[in-house]
Amino acid sequence: MANQISNYSLVFIVLTLIITGSIKVKGSCSQALGACGPLGDCDGRCKAQHSGGQGSCDLNLCTCYYNCGPPNPPSPKICNAGLGLCSFRCNDDCCNSKCASKYYKAVGMCNTIGTSNLCTCQYVCR
């Protein structure tokens, strides 16, 4: 009975590692690499995939532990707005100044759309 439970536990652990594949937590990652193989093989396979990695055998399952760094932050969402017409008095520089004073991290430019020359802004949405 105890032997059956340990076999089920081993199967559960192996399936969990296979399903998750690579686990990332605060810059430390791990990856299941299958059976351990001959002595030193697990560590060698780990180092071949991840420089500075450390291979570890547990229950004949090779797991590679390595530093994966922090995840990249998501890119900011960009919004667009119109601030009226551009003219000789208010050209690209004026349009850019109006956008920068009204929106966060904004860039303004004059764009001809049809027969109208419009001041358009691109800025980081909040």
Automatic annotation (TrEMBL):
Recorded GO CC terms: extracellular region
Gene Ontology BP annotations: defense response to fungus; killing of cells of another organism
Main localization (coarse): secreted
Subcellular compartments: Secreted
Keyword annotations of the record: Antimicrobial, Disulfide bond, Fungicide, Membrane, Plant defense, Secreted, Signal, Transmembrane, Transmembrane helix
Entry's transmembrane regions: 6-23
Entries under PANTHER family matching the protein: DEFENSIN-LIKE PROTEIN 183
Family to which the UniProt record says this protein belongs: Belongs to the DEFL family.
This protein's name: Defensin-like protein
Species assigned in the record: Cajanus cajan (Pigeon pea)
